[in-house]
Amino acid sequence: MDSPTKEKLLVILGPTASGKSALAVDLAVEFTGEVISADSRQVYRGLDIGSGKVTEDEMSGVMHHLLDVADVTETFTVSDYKNLATASIRDIIKRKKLPILAGGTGFYIQTIVDDLKLPEVPPDLSLRQELETYSTADLTELLRTLDPDRVDNIDVHNRPRLVRAIEIAKTLGKVPVLETNCPYELLQIGIYVHQVELFKKIHNRLLARVKQGMIEEVKNLKDSGVPSDRLEALGLEYRYISQYLDGKFSKDIMLTELEQAIRQYARRQMTWFKRDNRIKWITEPEQAYPLVRKFLNF
Fold first, then answer.
1. Interhelix angle for 214-223 vs 195-212, to 10°?
2. Tens digits of per-residue pLDDT, 19-43?
3. Which in 27, 56, 89, 204 has the greatest CB count within 10 A?
4. What is the pLDDT of residues 232-271, one digit of tens each?
5. Which pLDDT does position 118 carry in this prediction?
6. Residue (of 225, 221, 222, 254) closest to 237 by Cα position
7. What is the SS3 assignment for the chain?
8. Tell me, what's the pLDDT at 55?
9. Residues contacting residue 44 through CB under 8 Å, at least 6 positions apart
10. pTM: predicted TM-score of the whole model, two decimal places
11. How far apart are the C-alpha atoms of 31 and 63, rounded to whole Å?
């Protein structure tokens, strides 16, 4: 008996500053698609410049999903992401368009392409109280002993995420449990940028975002009542700029340390993506088009 035909899903991924968003838009225009963001910070309203959220002009009329779906003070979980992204993919397919999942949050992408069965683990308040006494470095090492794969793809400065990962690992042993069959006919295209060039892009983009008003964006969030610990948890630009605004270091030191942290994040992204041998890597955007045409039988 023939297995039912799977619906097609195109994924555009890569490290930060590699050009994913622009390529996804161009492919959506060319192949009548819509884009589903796979970015753990672009889901939040108000995180625009710092998260690199695509602007209306940059969208070129292409419908985008999973942007601005949560308040910045709320916790948006991977389960929330999976539910909303899956619904968006179904809706796009129903309207006879190509769903294009695009972003750099590897865990978000994997939860879709591998249909992760995400754990239902309730909060353990006594464990959380105990872990409050741990330093962030100690939390990282504890998670490493419990689930070394998870510690390789988590923000090791994000205490709430570290605590939650430890909570899950202590309950289930390891997270997540994978399904072996992708629910879609899948094409994953990764944008590879040589490290020297990538670091140059990261540097130039950081300076451009400062000129665009990224520091003012974080100041506005603080002025609207978003606490410093929440901005810390949002990572990278929001963590370091919040610390600068709190007077912890100068602007120059902030920018230097932030750029180094973004470089480290890009390395972690590539470590995560390199585990998936289904990804077809390209070095120039033009190389994506023949891959997509073949995938779609154009």
1. 60
2. 999 999 999 999 999 999 999 999 9
3. 27
4. 989 899 999 999 999 999 999 999 999 999 999 999 999 9
5. 75
6. 254
7. CCCCCCCEEEEEECCCCCCHHHHHHHHHHHHCEEEEEECCCCCECCCCCCCCCCCHHHHCCCCEECCCCECCCCCCCHHHHHHHHHHHHHHHHHCCCEEEEEECCHHHHHHHHCCCECCCCCCCHHHHHHHCCCCHHHHHHHHHHHCHHHHCCCCCCCHHHHHHHHHHHHHHCCCCECCCCCCCEEEEEEECCCHHHHHHHHHHHHHHHHHHCHHHHHHHHHHCCCCHHHHHHHCHHHHHHHHHHCCCCCHHHHHHHHHHHHHHHHHHHHHHHCCCCCCEEECCHHHHHHHHHHHHCC
8. 96
9. 51, 68, 70, 71, 72, 76, 234
10. 0.88
11. 13
pLDDT of residue 174: 61
Q: Which residue has the tokens 């979980």?
A: 77
**Dihedral sign, CA of 264, 45, 161, 151?**
negative
Closest CA to 66 of 78, 58, 57: 78
Alpha carbon 72 to its chain centroid, in Å, reads 15
Mean pLDDT confidence for 170-193: 80
Structure token pair of residue 297? 């039988």
**Identity at 213, one-letter amino acid code:** G
Q: Which CATH number fits domain 196-266: 3.40.50.1100, 3.90.180.10, 1.20.1250.20, 1.10.287.890?
A: 1.10.287.890
In the block, residue with structure tokens 């994997």:
110
Domain ranges of the chain: 119-175, 196-266
11 pairs with which residues across the strands?
101, 188
Q: What is the mean pLDDT of residues 282-292?
A: 98
Distance of CA 240 to the CA centre of its chain: 18
User: Which pLDDT does position 42 carry in this prediction?
Assistant: 97
Q: Which two tokens stand for residue 93?
A: 């397919």
